[in-house]
Amino acid sequence: GDRPTVALPPPPATLRRDNHWPVGDALMGRAAPGPASRRLSIDALATLLHHAVGVTERSGGFSLRAAPSSGALFPTEFYVLARDVDGLAPGAYHFDAQHHRLTRLGDLSAQASDAGVTDADAGRAPAMVLLTSIFRRTGYKYRDRAYRYAVADAGHALENLRVAATCVGFMARPLRHFDEARAASTVGVDGVEEGPLAILALEAPTGPEAVSPLAFQWPAPPSPDRPDALGVTGLVHLATSLRLVRATTSPVDGGAARPEVAPPVNGDAARGEAASPLSGYAAAQPAAESAPPADAIALPPPESLPAPALGALLSRRSVRRFADEPLTLAQLSTLLSTSGQPSAALSEAVRIHVVCHAVAGVEPGAYRYDRASHALLPSRRGNLRGASASAALNQDVIGDGGAVLILALDRRALFAADGARGYRQGFLEAGMVGERLYLAAGAQGLGACAVGAFYDEEAARLIGVGREREWVVHFAAVGRPAR
Questions:
Q1: Do residues 360 and 328 make contact, with C-beta atoms less than 8 angstroms apart?
Q2: Could you give the C-alpha distances from 410 to 114, 305, 347, 422, 442, in angstroms and in order?
Q3: What is the pLDDT of residues 245-303, one digit of tens each?
Q4: Cβ count near 394 (within 10 Å)
């Protein structure tokens, strides 16, 4: 269109060469020493965006991207809400990944609440990044499963941004609560065909701690005589959205607008707020799991991952052919430890299961990873290569690797804190875990391939869980790449 554009500094080769911040530290959320000014520069912003979702290679007419996407459909879009970025005028911008540039959308008020968040959430962040999804890009192929794939895709990109931010001395902190309608209005999207999924504040590591405001309500459900344009996808997005309510002024904040404290977002209509479509669901879930069994397999300490994080982001690729060689137990330990650490705390519901096909020192079978004890808890014994591939729509890559990491969402934990909002946040977190697996595998010289297509019932049987307790949401094969 005719909107002004800002050409971003080229992905700086010097930064990639000189920046040796280890991927292990980045994945654990430890930031490199930042600029003395503690200010975000346009060079640093360009680096973050490129390493999160930029085009990292062009080959055979295809543009390969930093973040993976189900079916290579790439529904995720990035918007920058810049307040105080050296070299960039304040305003709202869209990131054009193909041309590595920003398109200016308009001015941005100093009040973060204009983007659907609160000052307490965004702190003094020099910029925020809004992730949206153009749902039809995924929906035309995946139909009623489109929402889960689109949100998981956004989670992969979100993790890349978080990792890249640490390399330039900043933190990309996901905000748990924001008003989707206000966020959509800020960047000029309709909120339906293209819906906001996540907002991250880019902050110096010494920035304010996250605050979870409670002045949000669920939006009203659509009228029965007005079917949603996107069917199940649109209804799920609405069900997981929030609306910011009631703002007052406070002398403590110098008169700045701030929301009143309203009842928690997973409350019920009897207390005056709009009911979540899934309110009260968490209380009906089964009790917590029992203590680890006596036959648990203790894993060795994870190994360090010294490879440069920015290089790991650029070289990330899906590997679909594996060598007939086993993984070592130390490699599996490092994958699980790195993938399983709760970096973003968007959701505590993600559970990791492992189907071991060829792992030295581990009997073939299905196991649950217990993060607290860093151990494998047996679920099923025996060779499950065929069963794994069958559950994943007979995709050979799932049966050929040394192991398959399978992510599931604990249904009780999923809705306990944020009601229906937890559904979206669970898939975002699963995508982030999946991206950590990619990066940790690559840093060890291993290959990984994520798969979102599988039979739900068969996948649950594969790892020995009941669907009333956990929902399987993600498969990822890992192994030594074929030469």
A1: yes
A2: 34, 29, 10, 11, 28
A3: 855 444 334 444 444 433 344 433 333 333 333 333 333 333 445 566 788 999 999 99
A4: 10
What are the structure tokens assigned to 118, written together? 């609160």
- The first and second tokens of residue 433, run together, are 């875990």
Residue 21: count of CB within 10 angstroms of its CB = 20
Closest by Cα among 422, 425, 401, 383 to 475: 401
| Beta-sheet pairing, 85-86 with 40-41 | parallel
Spatial distance between the Cα atoms of 422 and 405, rounded to a whole number of angstroms: 22
What is the β-pairing status of strands 91-96 and 76-82? antiparallel
pTM, two decimals, is: 0.88
The CA-based dihedral angle spanning residues 110, 249, 243, 412, taken in that order and rounded to the nearest 10 degrees: 110
Classify strands 55-59 and 62-65 as parallel, antiparallel or unpaired.
antiparallel
Q: Mind listing the pLDDT tens digit for each residue in 374-410? A: 999 999 999 999 999 999 999 999 999 999 999 999 9
CA 267 to chain centre: 26
Distance of CA 254 to the CA centre of its chain: 35
- Dihedral angle computed from the Cα positions of residues 95, 161, 427 and 73, in that order, rounded to the nearest 10 degrees: 40
Q: Which residues contact 25 (CB under 8 A, 6 or more apart)?
A: 32, 166, 309
- Orientation angle between helical segments 146-167 and 42-53, nearest 10 degrees: 140
Nearest to 338 by CA among 480, 440, 426, 446: 440
Among 478, 466, 424, 449, CA closest to 198: 424
Q: DSSP labels for 212-224?
A: ----EEPPPPPPT
Kindly report the backbone phi and psi dihedral angles of residue 434, in degrees, each rounded to the nearest multiple of 5, phi listed first. Answer: -60, -40
Question: What 3-state class would DSSP assign to 131?
Answer: strand
